[in-house]
Amino acid sequence: MSEQTLVDSNVSSISKAGLLSEQLLTNNLEERTVHKFGGSSLGTVQSIESVLAIIEQRISDQDLVVVSANGKTTDKLVEIIDLVNLCQETEDEAFTHLLLLIQAEHKQLITELVAGDSETAIELVAKLNDDIRQIQQWYLQQQLIDNSNNVLAFGEIWSSRLLAAALTQRGRAAVAIDTRECFVLDCPLKTTLDSQLSSTNLHSKLKPGQLHILTGFIAVDRQGKTHTLGRNGSDYSATLAADLIAATDVSLWTDVDGIYSADPRIVPSAKKLQRIEVSVARELGRLGNPVLHSKTLSPLKEKSIHLHINNTFYPQQLGSEVGVFGEIARQEVSITHSNQLIGFQSKRFNKKLLAVISEEFSTVDIDAAQKRVIISAEQAYGLRHYLQEQCVDFATHSMSLLAAVGYSIRDSRWHREFIKTIEKSPYPVAKVSVNEHSLVAFSYEDCQIEWVNKLHNRLTREHKNIGVIVAGTGNIGETFLSNFSAQQQAQEALNQVHLIGVMNSTKGWFDVDGLSADKVASEFSNNAQPCDIEGLLTWVQRHPFDEVIIVDITPSEQFANNYQQFFDAGIHVISANKCANTFAREALGLLQQSIDKNDCQWLSNTTVGAGLPINYALKDLIDSGHQIEEISGIFSGTLSWLFSNFDGSKPFSELVKDALDLGLSEPDPRDDLSGLDVQRKLLILARMAGFQLDLEDIDCMSLVPESLKSLSKNEFLQQSHLLDKAFSEQLAEAQANNACLRYVAKLTYIDGKIRVRVGIEALDNNHAFANLNPCDNIFLLKTNWYQDNPLIIQGPGAGREVTAAGLHSDLVHLCRQLNSKHQDVDIKGIN
Fold this sequence. Notes:
Helix content is 40%, strand content 21%. The chain is α/β, with parallel strands linked by helices. It folds into four domains: 11-16 and 464-608 and 809-820, NAD(P)-binding Rossmann-like Domain (Rossmann fold, 3-Layer(aba) Sandwich); 33-247, Acetylglutamate kinase-like (Carbamate kinase, 3-Layer(aba) Sandwich), CATH 3.40.1160.10; 333-459, 2-Layer Sandwich (VC0802-like), CATH 3.30.2130.10; 614-798, Dihydrodipicolinate Reductase, domain 2, CATH 3.30.360.10. An eight-stranded mixed β-sheet has the order 3-6-2-1-9-11-12-10, with helices on both faces. A seven-stranded mixed β-sheet has the order 22-21-20-19-23-24-25. A six-stranded antiparallel β-sheet has the order 14-15-13-16-18-17. Helix 3 runs antiparallel to helix 6, helix 4 (91-113) packs antiparallel against helix 5 and helix 5 packs antiparallel against helix 6. The protein is elongated and about 120 Å long.
């Protein structure tokens, strides 16, 4: 990549290139999102303030917001109903105490959230008091049980009223909507909507210029009777609303970072799944995943709606996304378990009855041979009631499951591995059920934590999903890409590494489902679209991978100036670009602070010596306690070739033109002759050795006279013969002293005094630097312990093959580090 300004491009053109995820990042006004906030996100004044900030920053008026009841309100309302059901002697006193506690908690939330608007606060408190009196009246009239769903509905009503009022007070027009005025169930038992009627009702409530806050969890039947939507009912409300308004996305804001490969509270090695195929998510929900409920996902079944699980308390983190994806997302395996299952067994379970049960209830397993139905404990009450109505005798028993879930896992190698692991485990299996996307072992005993861990460790991938973006499509970039697939096959650390982007100074080709490295060179021009740094930065901040690495194979100082933003976004960098390494010390210090703060890595071992291990050797000497006293050598392959061939048989200017024709120099040879490249390399090594230097501290002898610096490239080549006289004189003087000319970089540190310079030196013909293969680099390291026999590293210090190999070495080292990195899981109320 050249140092030219990257071409500006608007966001929409980048989206077409795949640079920006259409589901996550586009701001198309026709696209709508339903945002649902759970009870834990609305439980305290502080958490509601976080929700208000998210709404302000991320949610437009065209979106919808669905809310759960504040905090544990629903649990307390359920407790009130249970008190009446139990008919305890102390029922009156306990009922009154609990109801007053709920009232006091909500008054406190109102007082603190709308403190600057006494009129609104008075109105909200008055409505709250009316609702509390209604609950008391139902209780006194012994109608509370008959109105239990109406009682439970108050939690969401209070929550939506409060959030709408708080937003309005802060200048955002908002209105609360009771979804019982919109959502009409055509089958209360299955909690399915009359879509046409519900859609008409909802759209009649939506007015332009204001944000609509919908109650979750509640709906009505055709007779107007209130029904609740069960566990995760507010999540279900959100996906129902998304279906009704043709939204593109649903964001569930909760207290966890996303969906994990196992419960992270009991499986320390569990990792967050950035993307989950919707068919796999449905299976996880069916088997009892606490976040992905099967009902929640059902409205998405025939739609292209994507579901996002985000953390209210860490909104800047990318959570998990459920949708239709490519091969990368389909490679993950999750382990789930549940001890909350009930087995129903009856001799009356014939084919016809089992078909009805399957239709009416969300079952986990139906076994006609054993005449058994396994269902979640939540659904068991409904099934028990149904069987009693049908006069079907049955027996029940507690059960558990341990399952592996993955895309087409039935036909994968994990099928055999699962069976083998289960057979060898102490988990007492009653039955194994094989489905397209799940392998399930059922037992009459509870599933223990150690069994979950063993299965997870055996079946899930140890390696993280790592995305790689390559910046630079020149000779080295092409060689790096051509070797990419072979390296993936050869290096275990690269098992889950995916090439997801390639860009140059004007165009980029990006695909989160992965690019074929073997085809990039031939297909780049046909698939790449205009892109700029702004678009790249936007994308990398919302990438769907565990980690992302940018491999910078450019000489661009402008691109290096973006490293700070890459690190701030949590992106790692592998660099063959020397510019950032030679920034002023203050700027370099800021980069290092960002690296430390964001737990990033920056490897740049090819900036000096290409694939030669000079950086590793120098680091090892420092770590071993050596004091560096000299770093010297020939650091430029171009200048090495020029002076190795400059013996007087050809003018120096002709050798410069030969190097250009052979592709051994930069397109403008003055970039080599200036000595800047060598100066930068010496600075990098000096800093690595612990010397606090800047570029201007290194004396640099340019081989380009002032008279030739400002000319165009062609003009310079035409007048390059003006170099010959001075070089011929220097060569003649050196040869008279049995010496040769070499362009040498040298740092010496003796008695506390440092001297650093790069330039031409006349060296004895027996000197270690005098007899190199043309283009070779050589590095001499002298320390307090390596004096008479210094350490010398010599070999090709430039060239596409060796530089690309050095970059691949950095990639393997970095991926090993990332794969071993453990990220703590923060779940509010648990950690």
